[in-house]
């Protein structure tokens, strides 16, 4: 029996296709504390296979994968892996119907901050930069409002 076998058993018996759990809940299932690296490194929660990744084998053997990790709040979301096309379609629809909070969570992970004001400022800045680049590209890189005075001719 592997070290993470209790997690495998817990996920096998979990009826919905998603389980949002705190690190504390996972520790209760396992019966021992998570290693310090689980609280410091997002990579510990990766869905990789191979030697040295017995924790990932624990959820993958049950047909699950880590969907999202929040190290600051010490929470993880597991999702059941799709086994056929209809499951994949459901998964895709779920991903496309993210709420605003999900988008803020994704932006917070990307920017490394949970400050909503900063997230909004960065999003608006990126939007303005993108729109300016689109307009310039539409003009084929020209600057139509630049006025160059005619050269004076001598002689």
Give your account of this protein's structure.
This protein has 155 residues and is mainly α. It contains seven helices and three strands; from the N terminus they run H-E-H-H-H-E-E-H-H-H. A hairpin with a 4-residue loop joins strand 2 (64-70) and strand 3 (75-80). Helix 1 (5-12) runs parallel beside helix 4. It is elongated and about 90 Å long.
What spatial order of strands do you see in the largest sheet? 1-3-2
Rounded to an integer in angstroms, the radius of gyration calculated over CA atoms is 25 Å
Percentage of residues in DSSP E strands = 5-15%
Tally of DSSP β-strands: 3
Overall mean confidence score, pLDDT: 80
What is the end-to-end distance? 98 Å
Q: Poorly predicted ranges (pLDDT <50, ≥5 residues)?
A: none
Characterize the overall form. elongated
Structural class: mainly alpha
Number of helices: 7
- How many discrete structural domains? 2
Report the biggest beta sheet as strand number plus sense, adding barrel if it closes: 3 strands, antiparallel
């Amino acid at each position: 029996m592997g070290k993470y076998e209790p997690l495998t058993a817990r996920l096998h018996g979990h009826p919905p296709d998603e389980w949002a759990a705190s690190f504390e809940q996972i520790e209760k299932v396992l019966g021992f504390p998570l290693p310090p690296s689980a609280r410091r490194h997002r990579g510990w929660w990766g869905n990789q296979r191979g030697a040295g990744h017995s924790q990932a084998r624990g959820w993958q053997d049950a047909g699950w994968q880590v969907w999202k990790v929040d190290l600051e709040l010490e929470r993880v979301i597991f999702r059941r892996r799709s086994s056929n096309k209809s499951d994949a379609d459901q998964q895709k629809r779920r991903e496309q119907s993210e709420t605003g909070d999900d988008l803020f969570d994704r932006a917070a992970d990307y920017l490394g901050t949970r400050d909503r004001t900063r997230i909004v400022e960065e999003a608006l800045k990126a939007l303005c930069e993108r729109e300016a680049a689109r307009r310039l590209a539409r003009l084929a890189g020209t600057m139509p409002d630049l006025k160059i005075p005619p050269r004076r001719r001598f002689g």
